[in-house]
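Service request form, structural biology core

Requester: graduate student, group of Dr. S.
Request type: structure prediction, single chain
Budget code: on file
Notes: please return the result as structure tokens.

Sequence provided:
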Amino acid sequence: MSSLSNYFESGEQARQKGHFRNLVMLARVDGHVSDLEKQLLQRIARRLSLTDEQVTEILNDPDAYPSIPPATREERYERFIQLIQMLVIDGRSDKAEEAMVRRFGVELGFTPERINEKFPIILEHLRNGMTRDEVLTNVMS
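Core staff response, request fulfilled:
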């Protein structure tokens, strides 16, 4: 981390960075970050209010950022949806990527049973073109 202020960041900032780190790790798992994955990372970084410097730091050393689960059920689902979105953004996924999404789902606080229930539903909705917000509304109801 580049500055002293990073040591005094809020819990929310740490959670945002940890989530972005998970997305970076997922994008890299197949050894290549596609242009579509980069674009999604940029959109999510903006949504998470991460600065360009923070994004660069996380991209350069993702292991320096712990994964901290969000406090609310809605945020957990939103992050799980974003992970699955990253999984399918380039039109292909493999078992290693899927296993990583499932592992991150457990880190978010989901049970393996809940992941097995919701993962295929979210995947289908995203492949059918639903927006993240539409998917979120659907899986939380």
